[in-house]
Amino acid sequence: MTTETVRLDEFYADLARADLAPLWNITEQLLTPQPRPRAVPWLWPASVMRPLAERAIELVPVERGGERRVLSLVNPGLGGRPYAAGTLWGALQALGPHESAPAHRHTPGAIRFVLDGRGVFTTVDGDACDMRPGDLVLTPGWAWHDHTNTGDGPMFWFDGLDLPMIEALDGVFFEEFPALNQPHQERHNQSEDAYAESGPRTIAGRAERLDPRPSPLLVYRREDADAHLARLAGETGAAQVSIEYTNPRTGASVLPTLACHMHRLSGDGPAARQSGNQIFVVYRGRGHSVIDGRRFDWEPGDMFVVPSWVPVEHHSPDADLFSIDDSPVLRAIGIFRREAL
Ligand code: GTQ
Ligand code: FE2
C-alpha cells in the first residue's frame, strides 16, 4: 500500500472514532434525485386479515396496557418496523360485541374508516360519534378517545395514524384517561350538529388550503361522500373521480398531518405519482391497481400501500377506494409534488 492510501485509511478510521462522517462518500445515498422509500408497494388481503382479526377477538382481551385490538400493517421493506410506510401507520382494528377499548390520548393523530359492523361509537373529547360502514371518524392528536361496542356483533375498521412521522420528529406523548372510559354527552354526534350549516364536508380533487388545526367536524358520513361522488361522476363522465374530506370551516385537509380521500372508479383510472406515502382501503367493488408496474388485484376490505413517488393507476368497472396520505405535511413545507403520467 502506498503511504497515501495508508494515511487516508487512518484518516477515515479517525473520523469514525470522532463520531464524524465524510459527506463526500454518502452524498449520493442521501441526496437522491428522487424519493427512494424503503417501503415497497404491498397489499394485505381482507381474506387473510379478517379471519386473524376474528381469532384475536376470541383469544385476546382489550385491556389497559395493550389498549387496542389492532393488527398493524407491516411493510416488508421496513425491516420489521410495524408501519405500512415510512410515515404512515395503517391497521385493522376489531372490537367484539359489548366490548370497549380504554380512553387515552396521544400526540399522533388518527382517522378511522369503518368497514363492517354496527353499534359502535368512538368518543372524542366527550362527543360520542356513531360509526357505520363507510363513515370516516377523526381522533385528532391529543384528543381523548375510546371505542365502545354496544352491539351483539363484532366491528372492524381501518385505522390510519401519523405515528411514524411523529416518532421521527421525536414528538410522541401518550396518556391514559384516569377512568377506563371517558364520560360523554348524552346526545351523540354533536360535532355534526354544530357544523351542519358550515362549509362543504367534501371537495372535488384535493384541498389547497392549509390549517395547523384539525377539523372540528369529527364524523363524515358515507351518504354525503357517496352523493358527492355520484354527482361528480355524472357531471364529468370520468373513469375516476376523487373527493377529499375537508374541514368545513376552512376547506383544509381533515388533520394537519393526514388527508383523506374517496375515489370512485368506473373504468381505467389515470396513472399518476405523488411525493409522500398513501394507503388505500377498498370499500366497495373489485378491481386491480398497477403500482410500480406490478399488478395488485383487490376486493372489499383489502388494504394496499403506494410509497412515495411510485406510479400508480387503478382499474375497476365499479368500485370505491378510500385513501389516506401525508400530503398536508409535504404541502405545509412546500415540497409536495404530484404528476400525471
Ligand atoms: O384506536 O386509539 O391502530 O391508539 C393505533 C393506536 C389505534 C386507537 C391504532 C391507537 C389506536
Ligand atoms: Fe389511540
Automatic annotation (TrEMBL):
Residues 92-159, 268-315 form the Cupin type-2 domain. It comes from the Bacteria. InterPro entries: Cupin_2, GDO-like, RmlC-like_jellyroll, RmlC_Cupin_sf. Keywords: Dioxygenase, Oxidoreductase. CDD domains: cupin_GDO-like_C, cupin_GDO-like_N. Pfam families: Cupin_2 (PF07883). This is Cupin domain-containing protein.
